[in-house]
């Protein structure tokens, strides 16, 4: 793709994300915004754009890191993984392939919310989204990251725990190496049904 395709992608993404000041934050969205209807958007494949996500969840365009958090958050909301195993940024009018080194998103914090039987673990993503640890997202071992875990997200996406977020889980784990969220127990050792 040409350089102007990157600018066009940003414009199309901005057009698709028009919101008002009263738009609420959404739990269960990769960027904390109302999720885009990616499942309804089926534009034609427009090729590859030189956007890459490295092993640490940093986004690059033509080798330079995209440092604007708002732009990374916007792109994250447009990202999906398709049945061919490839990652695409999708707008209503175009679909471009991007490169992902390991996992496209990162869990940067795990915060207990509530108390007692109602306590859940809120998993905060590097792109502004928050997911509750439950059986849907689960904890799945990632041998390519020294045994840390990743979670499963909508649109075929995954998020790997950063070292700091993983250590936070280890700190709050019980003597059996488990954490509780909702009323479910999740093993950090990989031996419960919530982990692969």
TrEMBL record:
Entries under Pfam families matching the protein: DUF1285_C, DUF1285_N
Species name: Candidatus Paraluminiphilus aquimaris
The protein's name in its UniProt record: DUF1285 domain-containing protein
Lineage: Bacteria, Pseudomonadati, Pseudomonadota, Gammaproteobacteria, Cellvibrionales
Domain DUF1285 as annotated: residue spans: 37-100, 104-177
């Amino acid at each position: 793709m040409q350089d102007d395709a990157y600018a066009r992608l940003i414009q199309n993404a901005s057009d698709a994300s028009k919101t008002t000041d009263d738009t609420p934050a959404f739990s269960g969205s990769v960027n904390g915004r109302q999720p885009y209807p990616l499942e309804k958007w089926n534009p034609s494949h427009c090729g590859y754009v030189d956007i890459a996500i490295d092993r640490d969840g940093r986004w690059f365009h033509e080798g330079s890191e995209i440092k604007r958090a708002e732009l990374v958050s916007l792109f994250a909301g447009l990202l999906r993984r398709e049945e061919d195993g490839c990652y695409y940024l999708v707008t209503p009018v175009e679909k471009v392939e991007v490169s992902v080194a390991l996992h496209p998103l990162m869990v940067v914090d795990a915060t207990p919310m509530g108390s007692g039987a109602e306590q859940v673990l809120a998993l905060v993503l590097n792109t502004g989204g928050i997911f509750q640890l439950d059986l849907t997202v689960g904890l799945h071992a990632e041998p390519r990251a020294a045994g840390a875990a990743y979670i499963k997200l909508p649109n075929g996406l995954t998020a790997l725990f950063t070292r700091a977020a993983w250590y936070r889980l280890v700190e709050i784990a019980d003597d059996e190496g488990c954490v509780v969220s909702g009323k479910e127990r999740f093993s950090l050792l990989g031996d419960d049904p919530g982990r692969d």
